[in-house]
Specification:
The chain is 27% helix and 29% strand. With 492 residues, it is α+β, with helices and mostly antiparallel strands. It folds into 2 domains: 86 residues, Immunoglobulin-like (Sandwich), CATH 2.60.40; 305 residues, Purple Acid Phosphatase, chain A, domain 2 (4-Layer Sandwich). The protein has a 9-stranded mixed sheet, with helices on one face. A hairpin with an 8-residue loop joins strand 7 and strand 8. Bound molecules: fe (ii) ion. Fe (ii) ion binds next to loops.
Length: 492
């Protein structure tokens, strides 16, 4: 009897030891307390990345970097580090440089003992190719809607598995609460661990709380002074120069940021120049009729023309629009102007277009492609009007861009939620002779706090001048048409 009891006790002890060991090992491998992990494009894309993560309690910040499975952390350098309590959690940001160009790395972040899941990123190899994905306006509140949007990113990474980064054109969440950010990071964790992220501040990202956005991602915003409510920064990848704008700046964009964009773009001799932003200079959705967005058509497009930016990509209006090549707000030949692409929404909130916007505020002939992501069908612009042509069930949208030397190809997709099939809704190709880019600005293109402060009053006056002297008269003159539309469609 005694020996049976001993055997049972022995087995129980062994089992409990095994369970303890397993749990210690699991904890050591992946600590679920390490949340919101991102690896962002940060400065030199060949040698540097910015890591951010959150923990429930204060802890040390460490990043381990691996090449072919071998720990190469010692060959890298931490060039910046920032930690602080933020909204009841603890934020960690570590910028790592000294990476080798053109290498596929893996990484973990943690406190030195406990580590996150493994993420991966590839550094730019310096050739003239770059592939990336863009999405916009996940803008979810509920877990269900974050999950539905995450299927769109699954499809995007399946379509372009070698994407070197994902540009998220803003409005990650609807109300920017801790719960919503947790929802975003829960459902987009697998995508954020799969490649580098280029986050763009939307008007819903950090609603009323300064520094919310730049506390969520480790970015090289040293050039920026507008990071109270968003960030602007730039980087090179392949033979392209990318500028990320903050359209929360003075409700839309300040004179200081326009100067920064001009100097930043003109200091690059890259073959291709691309700008990312949240609000759109050309859109026909619910938000496209307000002065903040239309001020971009008035003020930003002048700088875009001046700098020879090839493609402007934006979000905010929850439908897909591609313009023809535009310069000075007029249609020009391809290669002589800029193509503006409003990414469709990756989320579930979708807007109808407002017909009156097209001929009240914008030229009517600027649209090359348009898709409204209605459940049940999509609408396509036929040149004069929009009409239903496709009975497919349309879900969230994503866009892929491939640059190969002198060719840039953009393709926009929607996901059919029921079948998880993707459908191309638009594609276009631009070509150009490479090696012709010329930097025309030399010197410091940063904007100091003092420089920014000097432009606050002029910026406000320019926006007010546009709103009162241009937008308001147009709106009053067109009021009967707008009222007729509102009565007809019951939407404003
Ligand atoms: Fe928005």
């Amino acid at each position: 009897m005694k020996s049976t009891v001993k055997k049972i006790l022995c087995i129980a002890l062994c089992l409990s030891l095994l369970v303890s060991l397993l749990s210690i090992s699991t904890y050591a491998d992946t600590d679920d307390a390490i949340q919101r992990v991102t690896c962002c494009v940060n400065g030199d894309t060949k040698t540097q990345r910015g890591f951010c993560w959150y923990t429930p309690e204060e802890s040390e910040s460490h990043v381990r970097i691996y090449l072919n499975g071998i720990d190469v952390t010692d060959t890298t350098v931490v060039t910046a580090q920032r930690e602080q309590e933020w909204k009841g959690m603890y934020m960690h940001q570590v910028t790592v440089s000294g990476l080798e160009a053109g290498k596929a790395y893996t990484y973990k972040v943690g406190d030195g003992e406990n580590w996150s899941k493994t993420g991966k990123f590839t550094t730019d190899n310096g050739d003239d190719k770059v592939n990336f994905i863009s999405i916009a306006d996940v803008q979810a509140s509920s877990e269900e809607n974050f999950e539905r949007a995450s299927w769109v990113m699954d499809a995007a990474l399946e379509t372009m598995p070698d994407a070197e980064f994902v540009s998220n054109l803003g409005d990650f969440t609807n109300d920017s609460t801790n719960e919503e950010w947790d929802g975003y990071f829960k459902y987009f964790e697998r995508h954020n661990l799969a490649t580098s992220l280029v986050p763009i501040a939307g008007n819903h990202d950090g609603l009323g709380v300064w520094h919310w956005f730049d506390n969520m991602f480790d970015l090289d915003t040293s050039e920026s002074v507008q990071n109270l409510n968003g960030v602007n920064y730039s980087y090179d990848y392949g033979n392209a120069h990318f500028a990320v704008l903050n359209t929360n700046d003075m409700l839309s964009i300040s004179d200081a940021q326009l100067t920064w964009l001009k100097n930043d773009m003109n200091s690059s001799s890259a073959d291709w120049k691309i700008a990312f932003m949240h609000k759109s200079p050309y859109s026909l959705g619910k938000d496209g009729k307000w002065p903040d967005a239309l001020y971009l058509t008035e003020a930003l497009t002048k700088v875009v023309d001046e700098c020879g930016i090839d493609v402007v990509m934006s979000g905010h209006d929850h439908s897909y629009i591609r313009t023809k090549s535009l310069k000075d707000n007029k249609v020009v030949e391809d290669g002589e102007g800029t193509v503006y692409v409003l990414d469709g929404t990756a989320g579930t909130k979708r807007y109808e277009i407002r017909e009156f916007s097209a001929d009240t505020y914008l030229n009517t002939d600027f649209i090359a492609a348009l898709t409204i992501q209605r459940d049940g069908y999509g609408n396509y612009w036929d040149g004069d009007d929009y009409e239903s042509t496709d009975p497919a069930n349309i879900g969230g949208s994503f866009t892929t861009v491939s640059i190969d030397g002198g060719e840039l190809k953009l393709t926009a997709y929607v996901l059919t939620e029921e079948t998880k099939e993707t459908k191309v809704i638009d594609t276009f190709t631009l070509t150009k002779e490479t090696g012709k880019g010329e930097a025309t600005f030399e010197g410091d293109n940063t904007t100091s706090v003092f420089d920014y402060a000097l432009t606050v009053i002029p910026s406000f006056l320019h926006l007010a001048e546009y709103a009162l002297l241009k937008w308001l008269p147009k709106t009053i003159i067109n009021l009967p048409k707008i009222i007729y539309y509102v009565i007809k469609t019951d939407t404003f």
